[in-house]
Specification:
Distance between the termini: 31 Å
Number of domains: 2
Radius of gyration: 16 Å
Order of helices and strands: EHEEEEHEEE
Low-confidence stretches: none
């Protein structure tokens, strides 16, 4: 059994988002289009189901019909201590490309490092490590 895996619904940008996340985190992207699955409820090339498999796992699809698309408020995707500090520093920087730093990754008074960044797709990440 695995842990919680977010499933994100994008407004036609699932392929771009999963490719971006693969470039940031590494791993492998697996994509299935509507056409692949015999669906006709949207453009054939839209992503019906996609996944990033690797050190960070995500599922995503393109919204079809009247499905709601990604809108996150009050939600952080936490990567606290999920990799070595140098890897987390790189992930933080890469997530911020064309995104926005909410709070720079830095040493905190309690001795740990953390920061928040919102990526170009509107996903807010909390990245940090001890020491």
């Amino acid at each position: 059994m695995t842990g919680l895996t977010p499933y994100l619904s994008f407004p036609g940008t699932a392929r771009e988002a999963l490719t971006f996340y693969r470039d940031v985190f590494g791993g492998e992207v697996v994509l299935h289009t509507l056409a692949d699955l015999g669906r006709s409820d949207g453009p054939a090339e839209s992503i019906a189901h996609g996944m990033l498999q690797g050190p960070v796992e995500l599922f995503a699809s393109d919204a079809t019909g009247d499905q709601a698309t990604l809108r996150l408020e009050g939600v952080l995707f936490s990567l606290l201590g999920t990799a070595e500090p140098d890897v987390l520093e790189r992930w933080f920087a890469d997530l911020g490309v064309d995104g926005s730093d909410v709070d720079p990754l830095q040493l905190r008074p309690w001795g740990d490092h953390d920061g928040q960044v919102t990526d170009r797709f509107g996903v807010r990440w909390l990245v940090g490590y001890q020491g």
